[in-house]
Amino acid sequence: MSVEPVRVVLAGVHGHGRWHLDNLRRLASRGAVRLAGVCDTRPVDAAQLAGFGKPEQAGRLGPLVRRTGAELVILATPIHTHAELGAEALRAGAHLLLEKPPAGSFADYTRLSEVVTATGLACQVGFQSLGSAALPYLRDLLAGNGLGAVRGIGVAGAWARPSAYFERAPWAGKRRLNGIAVTDGALTNPFAHAVASALSLAGAEEPGSLREIDVELYRANPIEADDTSCVRLRVAGGTVITVAVSMCAERRHEPAVVVHGEHGQAELTYTTDEVCLRRHGAPDEVTRHPRTDLLENLVAHIRTGAELLVPLHRTGAFMRVVDAVRRAAEPRPISPVHLAGQNGGRVLAGIERLTRRSAEDLALFSELEVPWAPAEQVLRAGDRDVAVYRWYTDGLPESVAPRPFLYSVRTLAGTEVSETAPADHPHHLGVGLAVSDVDGTNFWGGRTFVQGQGPRWLGDHGSQRHLRFTRRESGGFTELLDWVDAGGRTVARERRTVIARRHQPSRLPGCWELDFTFRLDGIDRAPLRIRSSHTKGRAGAGYGGFFWRAPASSTRRRVFTAEADGEDAVNGAAADWVGLSGTSPSGRDWTLVFTQCGPARDRWFARERDYPGIGPGLAWERPLSSGSVTRRIRTVVADGRLDRRTAAALIRRTSER
């Protein structure tokens, strides 16, 4: 009994749609499909449709599907149209083969998923690499403990793309187009298969299967999106995945997915379906695997109920990565000094070796001492760059208690309101977290106050070491750190969240807000003993905790609360908020207003005469002993010199929000 060919509409014929035409022609010759229609904004010439008869052409997808009775739509249109046109095809009654990435944002993916569920129709996503038998082969190998315990999965990819690649379409190299998320970049489009293959091997395909996502984006070309990027993922089960890719290589290098096991490595080249096993003490074992065409699989699903290889729900974790890329800080430009102009584009020297190092070490670019990838991030409040966060401590002397910090913090008008390593106190590092005594270790920097002796150099300085980001976006991040004493022993662990926000001008006119939260835990919840110099006998020196060092060059400095003015009255006060204002050398006024959130409220350490600085003291009146210490400080950063009535109103508005 003969089976009727599946009637197909191809939406998006130009560009990658040409590949689909060739595949349709192959399957049509076998009687599996019939091209019933093509949908495109431009007419398709007869030569392109040779061998298909006279399929109907139209510019609107839904009506074309209904008129032709199409059972299947292949959607090869621009990324930002996927969700809308995919939903239109499904509602018109057609199953869907959707090009990757499924959408430009997780919200669009969710809306499309809801339509798939409501219609009961199939949506197969065009991750051709997931049709390879190499993946189940490797999954079976790992499940059978063929490599022992898996340490992680690293992916490396470096391709050559001329500058014309980013000019091939209006959406190419864009993050957004006409207000709609495109999210076209190295990780999310050309190397999307690399990300999807690694997630599949890790068994992490559902939306909730990723615990952490940390993204770094760079660009050598003058585009909005990234052409060089990396991501580190932490799967709910604990497996770490890194992907480092670039389109700025001198020539094409086949991408590699490297599984690091206790007893060796397995390397998948997904473009050739080849697996190389490297076990300790054994010769390399290379195998090649067949691949199932995803359109054939979808046709079989429609006619016989065969299981789909890449249903939409299996791309949920991938779409979480896409959304993290969408929300990430703007790609950092790579200076021309690191580039060459071969291949009609921009070549990044040594990028193939660098991506391979990333895959071997499971490291991000910023962790590989790359000059164009410094370990720091620009924070944005709305559309303004307002601060830089530096998390590497290389080059900082031990005497400053090396630690991550915010620097170049500025108002919306651009007036700098922080200072790093000033001559008066070189250990004051912008805005951050510093404590003078944690279990006997100086995490503040400078001299240590010794009761009965005064300040002394003791060589007891600790350091805060960045471990990793669990989340990073343009407006902030969550970071994990170790606090390590002078002997290298971990004293405490910290989880830090920093967020920059710009509110509606009607709520906070001319202002933005820095929200800084930290939780400091003793090892195995052992109590931490935190002391200040005040608790050791140095009156008024209750510093230790969140601290903001403002510029000493500021004049007309004023520190104030709702009831008090001046350093003598404010230092040690238990006030709801504290304000600090000054005037920059260029004559611009600024004001900072600090408040503490949550049940714990500390007394304020305040300076304005010798230098300007503010911070709540964790251990003002007596030492603090606790297995876990959590604090949240919100700071309004304002242009102009605010009076106490305006400062109080701004704090009320942030609290109401």
TrEMBL record:
Residues 7-127 form the Gfo/Idh/MocA-like oxidoreductase N-terminal domain. Keywords: Oxidoreductase. Residues 138-266 form the GFO/IDH/MocA-like oxidoreductase domain. GO terms for molecular function: nucleotide binding; oxidoreductase activity. Pfam families: DUF6807, GFO_IDH_MocA, GFO_IDH_MocA_C3. Gene3D superfamilies: Dihydrodipicolinate Reductase, domain 2 (3.30.360.10), NAD(P)-binding Rossmann-like Domain (3.40.50.720). InterPro entries: DUF6807 (IPR029475), Gfo/Idh/MocA-like_OxRdtase_N (IPR000683), Gfo/Idh/MocA_oxidrdct_glycsds (IPR050463), GFO_IDH_MocA-like_dom (IPR055170), NAD(P)-bd_dom_sf (IPR036291). PANTHER family: BCDNA.GH03377 (PTHR43818:SF11). This is Dehydrogenase. It comes from Amycolatopsis albispora. The lineage of its organism: Bacteria, Bacillati, Actinomycetota, Actinomycetes, Pseudonocardiales.
